[in-house]
Amino acid sequence: MTKPLVAIRSVSKNFGEFQALKNVSLDVWPGEVMCLIGASGSGKTTLLRCINQLATIDAGGIWLDGELLGVREHGGRLHRLSEQQIGRQRLKTGMVFQRFNLFPHKTALENITEGPTQVQGRKADEVRAEARELLRRVGLAAKADSYPAQLSGGQQQRVAIARALAMKPMLMLFDEPTSALDPELVGEVLAVMKELAKSGMTMMVVTHELGFAREVADRVVYMDQGAIVEQGRASDVLGAPREERTKAFLSAVI
Amino acid sequence: MKPAPALAQGFPDLSGMRIAREPHWFRWISAALIILVLAAIARAFANGQIEWSYVSRFLTAKVILEGIVNTMVMAVLAMMLGILLGIVVAIMRLSPNPVLKSVAAGYTWLFRGTPLILQLLLWFNLALVFPTIGIPGVWTARAVDVMTPFLAALLGLGINQGAYTSEVMRAGMLSVDIGQYEAAQAIGMGRLRALRRIVLPQAMRVVIPPLGNEFIGMVKATSLASVIQYPELLHNAENIYYANSRVIELLIVAGLWYLLVVSILTPLQMLLERRFARGTLRLAR
User: Domain-by-domain residue ranges, chain A?
Assistant: First the structure.
């Protein structure tokens, strides 16, 4: 029997008084493409950030590839892992940010090789060859030596996807990858993501692109006020929502 | 719907007309006045009680040249110590560890809070507090032998500079977008590696202009080390005028050298700025 790649159990997260996540449980299966939708402040971005530990959870647990994230159980208590151990766990996930966050003082190629050479300690030649292949895959073979400031938003985001893939993650997390883009640049980023989904990568995508969700997602999860309201096949959740809140959200978005 | 109307009449055609040059009378007059005043000052100095021959003779005297070399050696070494301390203290200040944070804040408070000349005198006179220094059983020495004018000046200037530089560095690190830390973490980097590889190189772009400023300040602050017998430029110039009483002439010699050094430093700073501006739009275009 296969096991979920990500198992989220009763996760809560507060920012001061604000409850960003309320007792969320969810499984993500290997090879699955999951789209998380919902209004801003619904907790979908926070959920992604908890999975790659940019945010720490206040209660519950997240298992990635069978390994409990961020803490270790010992003598009936949970102990926080060291920075190195958390860094090692992060290598299993790749993160793509809304605002790209490319390193501006490094070229596109150097952005991609930075992690494999510096963190994983791999050989520079081998990593560079792989990085060029990744750039070709995202359609930017000619931009290897460009700095981020010389690239359009869509090109920057595609480099950012290549940078995340270079670490050979088991899971790709996308945090509103097209929200900061001019409308005419959204398509090129979504095309790269579609190709990635087709290649069998497990993906969690926070997005407002319902067209993308309908076409690519195996499952759509609708969140509101820190909780999962409805989930299911894209055609069901987007085409025939059962919950009133989902219906209200969808009619407001479309 | 009405069709779009033709362009309205009454606006003359300006094509082919150039913008005229204005004569700027006031600029010419004020420039002439300033030149007159400067000429009067120059004439006053030329006819004053200054033996210009002494200035030109001592400008390249061996003792003066040694002084400027010592000044530059001290300024560079103390600045390097200051930058090193500044980076370490800034990282401590921004760390989540409350112990490191407090130590860093205490250091800045102490060394920014007392005059530099007082710190120099304290280091130089350390032997009064600790006649012998060292690690008991391993190595000991008399403090007067260890605390030479050179070492006292280096510690005094460098540690004081570190307190100021740490604030410059902290500002630089804070200027880097939080998303850069997150992106570095997301590819598995720890805090220190992210600082070294991602944040500090970007912070450098921001801190070089203020650091250039601090270094120019340091070149001149070395003159304070004259009070603890470090043979820098001003100290050597003073030694000469104690002997020959040409006070103003030698002060002018020292002043010219300081001006020359600072004039050379400014273009050097621009080269450094360009080096760290990699990837920014201004250079990319």
Answer: 100-168
